[in-house]
Amino acid sequence: MFDKRLLRELDKALIVAVFLIAVIGIITIYSATHARGSTPYESYVFRQMNWLLIGGLLLIVMIQISYQRFIDMVYLLYSFNVILLALVLVMGNARLGAQRWFSLGSFAFQPSEFIKLSLILALSSYIGSKKEEMEHAGSLVVPLLLLFIPFILVLMQPDLGTALMLIPITLVMLFVGGVRIKYLLTLTALGLLSLPVFWHFLRDYQKQRLLVFIDPNIDPLGAGYTIIQSKIAIGSGGLFGKGWLSGTQNKLNFLPERHTDFIFSVIGEEWGLFGAMALALLYIFIVKRALNIAFLTNDMYGRLVATGVALLISFQVIINIGMTIGLMPVVGIPLPLVSYGGSSMLSTFIAVGLLLSVGMRRSKF
Fold first, then answer.
1. 85 or 43: whose pLDDT is higher?
2. What is the rounded radius of gyration, in angstroms, for the C-alpha atoms of the chain?
3. Quick check: 157 and 99 in contact, CB under 8 A?
4. What was the pLDDT predicted at 97?
5. Is-contact 158 94, C-beta < 8 A?
6. At what angle do helices 141-155 and 160-176 cross, to 10 degrees?
7. What is this structure's pTM?
8. Using one digit for the tens of pLDDT, what is the confidence trace for 170-200?
9. CB 63 within 8 A of CB 18
10. Domain assignments of the chain as residue spans, ordered by start
11. Count of other CB atoms within 10 angstroms of residue 69
């Protein structure tokens, strides 16, 4: 039975910020796609509104369930998600050279969006249960195994951005869990030393993306085209932007993937620096609230879950905005709650639901 007294601890400001960002996303998706000629019920906006509604329902369900329930069954959830990652390599649908999706009617389900949460929960469960032993090097074996399996499977899709994002999340959660900094620095050094070897396992288009990150002009009509157009769009927005539905790079189809990975470019062009900063401040507010929940939580499991969610949201925002302005290579990470996509939307709402659940019960355990 749900204890209604827990509602007093519900972070309503966090919920408002989450839904406000989602509404900004829907408005921007409309601007990026409304001229494509689809009927209202087939439009990206209509589908995204459906995912927002389902996400809101999931949020209601999540806050009524203690995060400890998910911790208790996490290895089942993690194993199921890993199986899906393996199956998508065999049975999934391929798009643009990547095999990441299962088609369920009109919905393309992407297991890699949910493995981020599964990994956070699995790490929280293990580290929380071994908190007295995490100072020893042997305690790293299981967390690194939990990381390695989905990392390889996601990399095989290939989805370089998601695979790489799992690494810093794991390292920071290990740090919060009490692992000695010298072990983490050793792991980081080994990872950096392995980069030349890792390079040879990348596909040609991934190598090209990394090269155009250094100089987009080496292939201005190919791999460098999108980032060049993105920077033009954001730069042309100036301080106040060109206005909603008035972005020329957007409307004249110069900007590819503008409703998904490069949706921040549309925001920069149409709403300018102030609009982009307002969105960034909303994300900062959410991450700050998540970290506050982590710091105020007495239970190590809850602290790790809240920390993991804060990392998940912040890394996605930093990487997505960074790649649209040319500060990071293009790796295909969506902007949480803004980019079009049901898997991304639902996984983010589940993550926020877990965060709220921890915040409501932070003094109970």
1. 85
2. 20
3. yes
4. 63
5. no
6. 170
7. 0.91
8. 999 999 998 999 999 999 998 888 888 877 7
9. no
10. 4-360
11. 10
